[in-house]
Design goal:
Helices cover 0% and strands 53% of the residues. By secondary structure, it is mainly β. The strands form two sheets. Strands 2, 4, 5, 6, 9, 10 and 11 form a seven-stranded mixed β-sheet that branches. A four-stranded antiparallel β-sheet has the order 1-3-8-7, with no helix packed on it.
Length: 119
């Protein structure tokens, strides 16, 4: 059973930074695409960023482009989300997710980590 464990969430003020980490186990990490998603209270889960298995290609939602950076360390089985210039609207539970190269959906999800940005 694939396990994904997020960490690094917390409370910051507007303009602050946080780095989320997601440690993966029980999978061949370098073969999986990884993604970050978030869900704010009363809203649907939304895509934030993704990174391909080799780390060479990344994708971002328009709302975070230029402020967030996704990266991965395949030697450590870990994916990161560096979040800068945080805004109150970034407040949400952040989830990491994994999918195989041939899959069109993310099959495994972490438990989430809370990020709260105050004005």
């Amino acid at each position: 059973q694939v396990q994904l464990v997020e960490s690094g969430g917390g409370s910051v003020q507007t303009g602050g930074s946080l780095r989320l980490s997601c440690a993966a186990s029980r999978l061949t990490f370098s073969s999986y695409y990884m993604g970050w998603f978030r869900q704010a209270p009363g809203q649907e889960r939304e895509f934030v960023a993704s990174i391909r298995s080799s780390g060479g290609t990344t994708s971002y939602s328009d709302s975070v482009k230029g402020r967030f950076t996704i990266s991965r360390d395949n030697a450590k089985n870990t994916v990161y989300l560096q979040m800068n210039s945080l805004k109150p609207e970034d407040t949400a539970v952040y989830y990491c997710a994994a999918r195989t190269v041939i899959s069109s959906v993310y099959d495994w999800w972490g438990q989430g980590t809370q990020v709260t940005v105050s004005s």
